[in-house]
Amino acid sequence: MSEVRDLVKGKVCYHCGDKVEDTPYLLDNRTFCCLGCQTVYQVLNENNLQSYYKYNQHPGKSQKENTADLSYLDESNIAAKLVDYKDDKVSIITFYIPVIHCSSCIWLLEHLYKLNPAVAVSTVDFMKRQVSITFKHNELSLRELVTLLVNIGYEPKITMQDVVKEGKKINQKDLIGKITVAGFCFGNSMMISFPEYFGMAEFERQYAQFFGYMNLAFGIPVLLYSASDYFKSAWRSLKQKRLNLDVPLALGIFVLFFRSALEILTNSGAGFMDTLCSLVFFILIGKWVQQRTYYHISFERDYRSYFPVAVTVLEEGGERPIQIADLQVGQRILVRNNEIIPADAILLKGDASVDFSFVTGESVAIEKTLGEIIYAGGRQIGGAIELEVVKPVSQSYLTKLWNNESFKTQEKKFDTFIDFISKYFTLGLIAIAGVACVFWLVGGDANKAWGAFTAVLIIACPCALALSSPFTLSAALSIFDRNKFYIKNTGAIEQLSAIDCVVFDKTGTISSPKSSTMFFEGELTETEWSLLSSVCRNSNHPLSREIVKWLGPCTVVPLDAFSEITGKGMEAISGRVEIKVGSASFLGVKSVNEEGSMVYVMVDGEVKGYFTLEQAWRKDLSLVVDRLKANDYELHLISGDNARRSDALKLIFPASAQLLFNQSPSDKLQQIDAWQDQGKQVCMLGDGLNDAGALRKADLGIAVSDDINNFSPGCDAILDGDSFAKLPSFFAFAKDAVKVIHMSFAISLTYNVVGLTFAVQGTMSPLFAAILMPLSTVTIISFTSLTTRWFARRRKLIG
Amino acid sequence: MSIIFFLIGCSVFIALIFLGAFFWANRTGQNEDMYTPSVRILFEDEVVEDEKVLEEGVRKTDKK
Q1: ipTM of the complex
Q2: In terms of Cα–Cα distance, which of A559, A588, A563 is closest to A576?
Q3: What is the pLDDT of residues A712-747, one digit of tens each?
Q4: Is the pLDDT assigned to residue A2 strictly greater than 50?
Q5: What average pLDDT does the segment B32-59 reach?
C-alpha cells in the first residue's frame, strides 16, 4: 500500500506538486522538480519545520524561476523607506507576498523565529497576503531577512509604489466607531422611551422628566460625534452651491435634535431622541456598506507598482544599486535575468530577449539587437545585459502617459442617481415645510406652524432614500464578486449601467495568454514534415515543443548530426538533407515581420516557411460580441499590435466597429477621448500597462486579468479572464441594479408622502415617527436585497 | 420605586463598559484581520507523529 503511494508521490515534486518525469533531485525518497524546491525542503527539514508539509500536500510554489538581486536592500535610504517602524533594537516591516495561498504558508511564515532567532514576531494577514515581521536589525539585516524569505520560497514583492503602505491608508475605524456610538445610544434611548409609548400612570409621571434627560444625554453624542460627517458634508456642498443628499439629512437630524431638546427642556413633550439615534444609526450603516471595498485588490496601481525599487548602476568603481527615482540620463545600468528595464535605454552589451507582457499582454519574448532602444517596462529573460539610459524614468515612452491630464485629477467622479435626485428632493422638501408653516401661521396657530414645519423636515428626512442605493449596489457588488468580477466601488456599478460603447484591447484581453495557437506559413513535403518533427523532439525549448505538438504524430527519422544553440535554433543532418530551424538571424534570412516570435525552417539552404505563435481568442469571444451587439452596444477594438490578424477579427466584430491597430498608449487615450466627445459613455477593457491611459480616461475602465493577485493596471474594475463570457450579463445586471434603485426610491417616497400627510397637519406623535422610520428602513433593506438577488438569478449570475 | 434610578444607572454603566471594550478592540486592530486567526487556532505546537490521524483531519478541513 505504501509502495503504491510512493509511486504516485514520485510523479510530482514533493514541495510544489509540479509534475516530475525524470529528475536528479532526490532526497529522503522524495522527488523534487528543481534545486530550489529541494533547498526549501532541506532548510525546513534542518530546522524541524516538516509540519509545513503536513498541513497541506505540496504547499510550496515552484522555485524554478531565478531570484533577483537584493543588494539594494543594504542601501540605508532605500531600507528606511520600506520599514514601518524602527528603533534602536527592532524594526517592523510589512511585506506583500503574492504566493501566500494556504494554511501551510501561514504556519511557516509565523514560525520564522525557528529559522532565525533574530525574528521576534511574524504575523500573516491571509486575505491581504501580507506578513508583518518584527526583527532585531542588529542581528539580521533587511537583506538577510528578505533572503531568508526567498530561501523558503516566499519572495516578497517590493516595488516602487508601495501597495502595502497605500492599503493601510484605507481606514474605516473612524466610521465603525461612529456606528458603535450611534447603535449604543439607539438601543438605550429606545429602552428609555418605551414607558412613554406604553403610557404611564399618573404616579409614574415623575419619572418622565428623568427619562427625558437621559434621552437628551444619549442624543448629544449622536449629534456631535456620530452625525458630524453629515454636517460637514452638507456645509461643503452648500458652499459649492450643490445640493447633495446630505443636506436634507443634516437638516432633518438637526431639526430632530433641536425640537426634541426644546420639548425635553421645557417639559412640553417626550421628544424624538430615539428616532434621531435610529436614523443616524441606519444611515451610517448604509455608508459603511457603501464604503466596504476589497482590501486585497488594489485598483490604484500605476507603473510604479510594476517597477522594482532599485536598479544596479555600473560606475567606474564597480556596481552600485540606486533608487530608480534617482536614475539619470547617461547612466549605464545592468539588468539581470528576470529584472525589469526601468527606463528607455540603448542596449550596449549582451543578448537582450525582452518580455513585454506587462506592457502589451503579449508574453513571448522579443529579441533586441545592440544599439536598439528598449522601452521601459520590459523584462529581460536570459543573461545580464548592459544598457545606457536615454530618458529619465518619468519621461519614458510608457511612463510619460502618467503625466497626461487625466491622471492629474484625483478621483474619477461617477454621476449617481442619488446625486441627481437629491437636488430636487431638497428643494421640494423645503417648499412643503415652508408652505405648511405659512398655512398654519395664516390660520393664526403659531404652535401648530412650528410643529408642522419641524415635523415635515423630520418625517421627510430621506433616510430610506439614502439607504436604497448603498444596499442595492452592495448586494450587486457581492454578486459580481461571486462571478469573479471585482468592482472598485458602488458608484462604478451605476456607471456600468450607463455604458453604451465598449472598446476592447486585443492581446491579453480578447485573446488569452494562457492558450496559444501555432500558425505555419509555407509548405512542407511529407519527409520534411517528419524530419522537422524529429529535429524538434530533441529540443526542450517551449517553441520546439509547440511545433512538435502542431506537427502531430509522425515517423521518427534518425539524425546523423544535431546541434542546438540555446536561444537561437538547431541544425541537423539526416542522410543528405541538412535542416536548420530557428530565428531569422540564426538562419541568416530577413525577418518577415518584426513582432512576435517566429521560427523559420530551412532545408538545404532554402527557406520553407515559418511558424508563428499567436495567442488564441478567448473562448466565447464571438458570443460576447454578438450579445453585446444585440443589446445595441457600440463595439470597437484598439490594439497596440499590428494588423496581422485583422481579417479574423473583422468576421467576429460587426461591420460598424472600428478596428484600430498600431496604437501607442497615448493614441489609445486620445481615441477614447474622441469617442467621449461624441457623447458616448465609453467602457474600456484592457490588460497591459499600455492600456493604463485608456482605462483611466474611459468612463469605466475594466482590467482583464487571468490571475487577480497578479498586477493589473489602475482601473475601476477587474475582470477575471474566466468570466469573460459573462460580460454581457454583467452589463445587463448593472442596469437591473439601477432599476432596483429607482423602484426603492418610489417606495421610500411613498413612505414620505404618508408621513407628510400627518406632518403637515401638525399631528405627528413621537410614537408614529419612532415606528415609521425603522419600518421604512427595514422595507428598503429587504426589498433591495431580495430584488437584486431575484434579478441576479434571472441573469443566471447566481444559482 | 426610586430603585429604578439605580437600576437604570447600573445598566447604562455596564453598557458603557462594553462600549469601551469594543472601542479598545477596534483601536488595537483586533477586527482588522477576520480570517487568519481562524486558521491559526488549528495549528498545534508540534504536529503529532501519527500522520494518518492528521491527514484525515486535514482532509476534513480541506473539504470545507
Answers
A1: 0.73
A2: A559
A3: 677 888 888 888 889 999 999 999 999 999 999 889
A4: no
A5: 66
Query: For A275-289, A456-470, A670-684, which range has the lowest pLDDT when averaged over its residues?
Result: A456-470
Residue range A77-103: mean pLDDT, rounded: 83
Q: How far apart are CA A188 and CA A192, in angstroms?
A: 6
Taking CA atoms, A18 is separated from A10, A23, A60, A62, A559, in Å, by: 11, 12, 10, 7, 32
Site of grid cell 448629544: A220
pLDDT value at residue A179: 94
Give me chain A's average pLDDT, please: 82
- A71-169 adopts what CATH topology? Alpha-Beta Plaits (3.30.70)
CA distance A772 to chain B (A): 26
B39 touches chain A (CB under 8 A): yes
Dump pLDDT digits (tens) for A317-355. Answer: 778 888 887 888 888 888 887 788 888 888 888 888 887
Which among A107, A177, A187 has CB closest to B23? A177
User: CB of B2 within 8 Å of any CB in chain A?
Assistant: no
In the block, residue with C-alpha cell 545592440: A370
Q: Are A418 and A464 in contact (CB under 8 A)?
A: no
Please state, in angstroms and as integers, the Cα–Cα distance from residue A312 to each residue in A68, A216, A357, following that order: 11, 66, 22
- In single-letter form, the type of residue at position A527 comes to T
What is the third-level CATH fold of A515-617? Answer: Calcium-transporting ATPase, cytoplasmic domain N (3.40.1110)
Which residue ranges make up each domain of chain A? 2-55, 71-169, 172-292, 308-341+344-390, 484-512+618-729, 515-617
- Which of A107, A176, A184 is nearest residue B43 as measured by Cβ atoms? A107
What's this model's pTM, rounded to 2 decimal places? 0.77
- Residue A412: band (very low, low, confident or very high) from pLDDT cuts 50, 70, 90: low
- Cβ contacts (< 8 Å) between B46 and chain A: which residues? 51
Average pLDDT over residues A765-776: 82
Binding-face residues of B in 17-36 toward A, CB within 8 A: 19, 22-23, 26-27, 31-36
Beta strands A634-638 and A561-565 are unpaired
Cβ–Cβ of B36/A125 closer than 8 Å?
Answer: yes
Amino acid at B22: F
With CB atoms and an 8 Å threshold, state whether B23 touches A173: no
Number of domains forming the structure of chain B: 1
CB A9 within 8 A of CB A23: no
The dihedrals phi and psi of A242, each to the nearest 5 degrees, come to -125, 135
